[in-house]
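Researcher: We plan to redesign the surface later, but first we want a full-length starting point. Tokens attached.
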């Protein structure tokens, strides 16, 4: 029964964080942040056509995070095995630095992991989810298991270690041409003409992506060539809180996808 609740379960901070309405925006923030690492971005650029595979890739990424967070252990293990298999074929030479890269490189896996967990944590807290410092550290500690599933060890397990990691890696980061293209594609994704004309998808996505970008650390916004103003941080936090408050009024059956709903049902069945 414990295994059926997955690697985390209803008493975990992971469930609280990833189930929060602000977590989705945190996921988009993570993508803007991840693009700033040249070697990590090279793998995406050279092995994915974002003009045709943007939405499928985004769905796969979201589904993977959700499966690891809320699926059974067997489901999480199977999803991680697929990711590890894909990673084996992703390698090449970064056109920005001229250095070789491989998706199995622990340094690159660590960057992707840290950008993701820090984005989730920062976004949900700024959105209004109450987490103590101890609980925030617990989330990072729990996420060690998520890192291990893709073959990664030695990741930050508390906020102090997270800050030290960013201090150490920031000299390697830059908004290369590849990173800017990826950020632009994220901000203005491909949509069919029918979707453009018959739905509010374009303006809705623009609001969400713009907010996710504004929630980046000031130093990351400056790397992209935009001001790292404190007023931007304040405005983004206010907007995020308003959006989250509205989302919390949406019934649970609509707010959560099937993987989360099934996890909640399993948790109720064993409580």
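Model: Full-length starting sequence:
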């Amino acid at each position: 029964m414990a295994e059926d609740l997955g690697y985390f379960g209803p008493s975990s901070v992971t469930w609280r964080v990833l189930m929060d309405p602000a977590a989705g925006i945190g996921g988009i923030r993570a993508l803007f942040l991840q693009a700033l690492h040249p070697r990590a971005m090279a793998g995406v650029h050279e092995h994915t056509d974002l003009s045709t595979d943007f939405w499928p890739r985004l769905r796969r990424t979201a589904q993977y995070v959700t499966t690891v967070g809320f699926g059974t252990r067997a489901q999480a293990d199977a999803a991680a095995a697929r990711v590890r298999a894909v990673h084996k074929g992703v390698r090449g030479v970064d056109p920005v630095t001229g250095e070789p890269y491989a998706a199995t490189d622990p340094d690159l896996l660590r960057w992707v992991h840290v950008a993701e967990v820090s984005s989730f944590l920062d976004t949900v807290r700024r959105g209004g989810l109450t987490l103590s410092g101890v609980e925030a550290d617990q989330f990072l500690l729990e996420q060690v298991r998520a890192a291990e599933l893709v073959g990664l060890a030695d990741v930050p397990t508390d906020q102090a270690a997270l800050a030290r990691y960013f201090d150490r890696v920031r000299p390697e980061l830059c908004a290369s041409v590849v990173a800017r293209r990826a950020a632009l594609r994220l901000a203005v994704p491909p949509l069919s003409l029918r979707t453009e004309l018959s739905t509010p998808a374009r303006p809705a996505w623009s609001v969400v992506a713009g907010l996710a970008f504004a929630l980046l650390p000031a130093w990351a916004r400056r790397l992209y060539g935009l001001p790292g103003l404190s007023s931007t941080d304040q405005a983004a936090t206010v907007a995020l809180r308003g959006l989250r408050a509205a989302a919390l009024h949406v019934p649970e059956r609509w707010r959560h996808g099937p993987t989360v709903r099934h996890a909640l049902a399993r948790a109720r069945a064993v409580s």
